[in-house]
Design a protein that fits this description.
Layout lengths: L1 H8 L3 H21 L9 H35 L4 H4 L5 H26 L1 H11 L14 H18 L3 H19 L6 H7 L6 H7 L17 H5 L21 H4 L2 H6 L12
Helix pairs in contact: 1-8, 2-8, 3-7, 5-6, 5-7, 5-8
């Protein structure tokens, strides 16, 4: 465990980039060979749009990274946050508690709020317009949403009192899990169901991308599934009945054109199309 801590305390930027790129490449190749849905689409054009948003997310997080560092250092210097208030515990338990709460605030809570508060939904909507959900969809976030998510992550670091090595470990796991549960792959049903009691499995998250309510407003988690089950936002739907996208933006000119996707937060949202 000490080796893991030492690694994340000094993780090079190149390693973080390699994890992101390697994960996308691995799942992209895997889903190309063994796809769940056999989409009729231009995979390269679709990936180009999503990788553009991945790039903007990377840039925003890089430019604002000093804020996370400051927050972690401030919490440490002032003994602030949950991990500083709890009794001393084994490092494995310490890490698990920290990761759980970081996931609660930095993934579940921000995701829930984005669905419930209209001004934030307008930015998050871009993620849901994707009608061909695959591993490149994982970071399909409008630059405005990337800022929103960064703010919640910073709040999570303060509430947890998280050291930077744990922040880096959380961000690494978050990247891997979001690529995994967005990938156009399928696990055996029983295995997926068992996994969904502990982590966010592919079937569990794909339900969140179904084009209609109430499924769109469910299964908000990213790493741990406990939060959806605890707060009553877990839903199940047969994987073969899923239709990706969002019913307010069913036209490819809206959901598969980069220029329009960037403008969506500033456009009026009409009523859902009839399907």
């Amino acid at each position: 465990m000490n080796e893991i801590i030492a690694y994340f305390e000094n993780i090079p930027s190149q390693h973080r980039a390699a994890i992101l790129a390697g994960g996308i490449a691995f799942f992209w190749l895997f889903e190309s060979a063994f796809p769940f849905f056999k989409f009729q689409y231009n995979k390269w054009q679709h990936a180009g749009i999503n990788l553009f948003f991945t790039f903007t997310t990377i840039v925003i997080n890089f430019l604002l990274a000093f804020i996370l560092l400051y927050a972690a250092n401030w919490a440490d210097e002032h003994d602030f946050g949950l991990l500083n208030w709890l009794p001393e515990m084994p490092i494995v338990m310490y890490s698990l508690v920290g990761l759980l709460v970081l996931d609660l605030v930095g993934a579940y809570a921000v995701h829930y709020v984005e669905h419930r508060w209209y001004p934030l939904w307008r930015f998050h909507l871009i993620h849901h317009t994707d009608t061909f959900v695959d591993t490149t969809s994982a970071n399909r976030h409008h630059p405005g949403e990337s800022v929103i998510r960064f703010i919640f992550t910073t709040i999570g670091v303060l509430l947890v009192g998280s050291p930077m090595w744990l922040v880096f470990a959380y961000q690494t796991l978050s990247v891997i899990f979001t690529q995994f549960n967005h990938a156009n792959i399928v696990l055996p049903r029983k295995l997926d169901l068992v996994l969904s009691y502990f982590i966010v499995s592919p079937d569990m998250h794909k339900i969140h991308h179904h084009y209609q309510l109430p499924y769109t407003d469910s299964n908000y988690g990213n790493i741990f599934s406990i939060w959806d089950r605890l707060f009553g936002t877990y839903r199940y739907k047969n994987r073969n009945e899923l239709i990706y996208g969002i019913d307010t933006h069913s036209d490819p000119k809206e959901n598969n054109a980069l220029g329009n996707l960037l403008k969506i937060p500033f456009q009026p949202i009409r009523k859902p199309d009839s399907v």
